[in-house]
Amino acid sequence: MRVLCRPHRPFRLTSPLGARAARRVACTIRGAPRGFGLIELLVTIMVIAVLLGLLLPTLAGARETANRTKCLSNLRQLGLAFTAYLNDNKGRFPRPAQNAIQAHEDWIHFQSWRDPAEGAIAKYVGQPFNPSIYRCPSDDPASHRKFNLDSLTIQYPYSYTVNEMICRIEWRGPTLRINQVRNASEKILLIDEAATTIDDGCWAWQNQLGGNGNADPRNVLSNRHDQRSERAAQSKFGRGNAAFVDGHVAFIGRGESFDARYFDPAR
Questions:
Q1: Is the per-residue pLDDT at 115 higher than 60?
Q2: 3-state secondary structure of 242
Q3: Residue (of 231, 229, 204, 230) closest to 218 by Cα position
Q4: Separation between Cα atoms, residue 86 and residue 67, nearest integer Å
């Protein structure tokens, strides 16, 4: 028996549903996604740049706020160490670590030939000696002023300085006792000093203002957490961190550090 074969015919989708599916497949193939054109790429880059411009100041501000908090924490630890020192030394403060006059009782031994672990309050801060506690995280010690002593060039490597009217350079007599400081909660003990003025561990208070109201720019509270530039000669420019005799710390106006009510222990 001979079998007659019909010629092969291509398969066709005859149902309406099948036809629609075929059209969708064809459209998908024809409409395959293409790469970004130049205009789309430029627009994307512009949008990203705008977003970064909005975010970066916010991120920088958040970082500076965190650094200010860490700086206050450092000052709080140092203030507590001073309190412990007072308890062990009949209520008398250590020396101020002035650049040209060195004393064993200096609160910090900062010169390169001295061991910082032998500073008067070092053992109360903790051992081994941790320099980060004595530095503001926003401060760059390499930018500090330099001074010459004989043939040596010295640069103070820390950020905090102590009130000389309380701790006193040796030739001014003994340091004060805690009971000689009036209104201890108002008296500044330590400040975070401006990088443009700091040269040792001694904050020699400044209450002299020029005829234009500017400050004597020698020992000035830093405003690094509040302003973009120090402007040390401007007595009311910004705020900075300070520790007080009673142990509390605060973010204060620079003008307060020029007011005798806050630096003179007899007021």
A1: yes
A2: strand
A3: 204
A4: 29
The three-point CA angle 26-31-35 to 5° equals: 150
Contact 30, 22 (CB under 8 A): no
Distance CA 60, CA 55 (A): 9
pLDDT of 196 above 80: yes
Match 């001295």 to its residue by tokens: 114
Stated pTM of the model: 0.77
Which two structure tokens, joined as six digits, stand for 161?
A: 């300085």
CA–CA gap between residue 8 and residue 261 (Å, rounded): 108
User: Looking at the predicted structure, is the pLDDT value of residue 59 above 70?
Assistant: no
CB 125 within 8 A of CB 77: yes
DSSP per residue, 160-189: EEEEHHHH--GGG-SPPBGGGSSSGGGSEE
Amino acid at 84: A
pLDDT of residue 106: 98
Return the CA Rg of the chain: 34
Instruction: Give the pLDDT of residue 13.
Output: 47
What are the distances in angstroms from CA 29 to CA 13, 20, 39?
18, 14, 25
Output the CA–CA distances (angstroms, integers) from residue 94 to 15, 98, 118, in the order listed: 99, 12, 12
- 163, pLDDT greater than 80: yes
Q: Is 106 left (phi over 0), alpha (psi -120 to 50) or beta?
A: beta
